[in-house]
Amino acid sequence: MSPSIHIDPARHVAPVDPRIYSGFTEHMGRCIYGGIYDPDNVNGLVDTNGFRTDVLDALKELKVPVVRYPGGNFVSSYRWQDGIGPRENRPRRPELAWLTEESNQFGTDEFIQWCRLLGAEPYICLNMGTGTLEDALAWLEYCNSSANTHYANLRRKNGHADPYGVKYWSLGNEVWGPWQVGQMNAEDYSKKAYQWAKALRLLDPSIQVISCGETGFADWDRITLKTLAPVVDMHSIHLYTVSQGNHDVNVMGPAAAEKGIEISKALIELAKIEAGIDKEITVCFDEWNVWDPVRAPGEKGAEEHYDLSDALAVASWLNVFVRKADVVKMACIAQSVNVISPIITSPTGLFKQTTYYPLHLFATLMQGTSLSLHISAPDPESDTYTGPTVPTFVANLAKHTPPASLPTKWIDISGVLSPSGQEIRVALVNRHKTTAWDVPIIFGPNAEVGSKVTVHEVWSADLGERNGFTEGEKVRTVVREEEWKGVYHAKAHSFQVLVFTLV
Ligand code: AHR
To answer: Per the confidence metrics, is the pTM higher than 0.85?
Structure first.
């Protein structure tokens, strides 16, 4: 029996924060060099700064509101002062996260300038590995201070009179991970991060400080939130999902992220009660994606070549963020270019991966107010996933796995009331490999929709279809209008955003 969807436009969850469609650029593989910055490009693809204009255009289409930088694991041995000032004086350094060399030809000033061109807000992750609090304060002063002090004057000397006003600063990256330079236990991290947050806020009280969490369902999250709740605005969590060669596992994986968000929300509430504080602390899911590091190792640049199954997984990820709009206020896809990314460049151009298209549809259409949709499950045999354990993969070594079984359905949905209040948009993934469903969509009690629905569909008959330089963009959005008679025919393994007009 087919599942049915019930939509009441009065059942608001929360406004969808546009920052859930944010990006992440790390000094890793070809993300920065050869991705966003390609000064030696001889094919007319760069501006006078050496920035790839085709990449900027593709990211502008995604309306990326915030970009996290410069890592990731990279930041934990990064000396930010190597990356400013005249380029010929910038030192080359050994790089300990991905075991390469860092030329420092792209640094803080270039990143800010690139963000301005993109129209995105910069978000800086601080080095809590080899970096000191003094370095962190100097970085903040360099970026944000208008005072007559050393680092603010150094910024001016480098040609940037006005402060950058970088609003988002996070306290280290995956400090819990054995792969991290400067790994700490939760207690040591919390003590240190508390003092950093305090000092950073003294220098610039206007910033938003973000704690380094784990998956949201780890003990690390509980312990760090308990200490850091009074001094942070957001708690960052990370998760990557992976197919293990199995489509069902691939598309159901984001259920682990949803569980992590729910647990984080509860841990935030608990920490606030224990600290006796009443302020907003939200979740910043600042690394997420489909990534199999065996297939695409970080040391080799992590260039995943995604197929349609991965695009459906990415759509399921984004449904999670829209459904959890009450607590997830920022999410950064890892990463924005080349490295586990929806965009792949070559010296002569770029192509958009299958995963680009769901991201684009969400960023452009799934804005407004998140609605609490109901999807019926009359027959668990037919519409609820009962396959292998829902997987999780936390980069490199997972210490914690989510509960073995999570409730998941073949039809995965989220919905919004558009910013104008005139449309209802439903993002619907039919995750089933072979079964198409005729899905009744019932509006009410006091809502009626027009006689047509606009369908923005991402689909191919071949679930393994990929886009590429030679293949072209076989998987992309196709838009059509259909007569609306109350039932939507969702093809097997398809993603679509349905746009209904309220009448
Ligand atoms: O995004 C790739 C890497 O995954 C990041 O550097 C790190 O934070 C995570 O382990």
So the answer is: yes
